[in-house]
Amino acid sequence: MSAKTKSNWLTYTVVILLAALFLFPIFWIVLSSFKSGSEMFRFPPTFLPEKFTLDNYRNAFEKGNFGRYFFNSTLVSVLSTILTVIINTMAGYAFAKYKFRGSNVLFIFFIATLMLPLEVLMIPIFHVVKFFKMYNTFAGIIIPPAATPTGVFLLRQYFLSVPNELIESARVDGASETRIFFSIMLPIAKPAMSVLAIFSFMWRWNDFMWPLLVIRDVEKYTVQLALANFSGQFSVDWNSLIAMSVVSVIPVLIVFLLFQKQFVQGMVTSGMKE
Amino acid sequence: MKKIKKKQGVTSLEMKLFPYLLILPNLFIFATFIAVPALFGAYFSLNKWSGMSAPVFIGLDNYVRAFHDVKFWQSFGRTLVYVLISLPFIMGIPLFLANLMIKEIRAKGMFRAIFYWPSMISYIIVGISFKFMFGDNTGIINYLLSLMGKAKVEWLTQGSTAMFVVILATIWARTGFYMVTYISGLQSIPLSYYEAAEVDGANPVQRFFKITLPLLKPTTFLVLILSFIDLFKAYGLVLALTKGGPGTSTKFVVQYIYEAAFDGKREMGYASALSMILLVVMATFTLLQFKVNKGGEIQ
Q1: Would residue A274 count as lying in a domain?
Q2: Which of B16, B25, B286 sits opposite A115 (nearest CB)?
Q3: Axis-axis angle for helices B36-44, B268-293 (nearest 10)
Q4: Which terminus of chain A is more exposed, N or C, with fewer CB under 10 A?
């Protein structure tokens, strides 16, 4: 009993210390965003804002067309995420549960795409996107990045841990492959699909390279593209930049908090493994 | 599988077609936006091309040049150093945290969220934030050091400390992602295994090495492959944090290629050749891992 209490205390100490360490940068950036222009760079620094101000936020929104960029990022991220979850779950299931001709070659091909960072294929991708008339369109940053090798891999690994007997007994009962996939496998895969949805939204929201490559009009800029643009300017306006950085993280935070409930619930309801 | 083969007619046809239908959308996108461009890239690598005028075929000249490009191999070596130092932390810390996070502790959800938050922040913003914190004169880190009686460090103006900050930022930014991956892997291990082991008198360490690690193999494999590739192609974070500096001390291979293609001389052909070399190295590593770990299946 006392050994258990001791180990509990140790666990809490370690967890709290690490949490503080991980939280610190966020904490510091958020606090700094409420400091006035000169206070942000004072040395020795103030911990809490001496004079709490929203000026940095006000400037950030007045200077840039931030509402527009937020709308663009939201639209692109949501649509791309829906597409990603659907098509990656399908592919992951196929690779985990079917032996079909060419499955190994195709799987290696899928995984090999992981090793082709967009940065390295920029020039040819740019031409392909143009060829399909997707240049400077949202479709160009929604559709091509929706097929993620990571998502396929994640779902495949998840489905590998689902017992084959479940499928075989459904087949014996006369269920069609389509029915097995939709009625039995999809509910089981919910936790993995939720994880993928969180990741996918985050990837698309935070993505910089695809928008940089595909989008030309400032009106179609995503948040990241706009931020990079601001931070790349000759004299960086740190006060606005820090405030914008804080605001730009909020949507992802909201999605994460929304999905986490579903995520945890999914874990509970899928307790099918005994 | 034997049972399936015995089945006749519609079912077996459906069974043959269905997996292809399932992979079709992914396959189409991969083929169109990755495989085809990769082939184009391979073709460009055999040409002298600025992206504007028509490409001039020069055979393997770009590769010969790449072979002698000392700066390229230096950036390659730096990338390897960065990857090999970061990898153990990026695999170990999330596993450690995941094991803590599946315990029955209070406010578990909150702690998970805290560790996960940094990985929701874009590389560009992580870079901006760390640059802000590790500033020479105004950064909070140097202030904290001075509180402990330590001299201030010019973090981003010295090669080795800049690399340290890049690695630190990487670990901070990636831990949550892999922790979540580990947690979902850990939760797929049946509790009954642990209960049985406990009845048999296995201690926590034994349980970890005899049950957790072997059954977690698919997840560990996933983390290894993902983190290796993610580290190897590091660009955005470094760009925002150090711009590859000071000098070239944190300039990694993707940045080198990017600059060859888009800065100054715009050598698309040569940059394509460098990309191909990078591709071959990464592919070799991944296939090797696949062979060694047998695709991450539990044996």
Answers
A1: no
A2: B286
A3: 130
A4: N
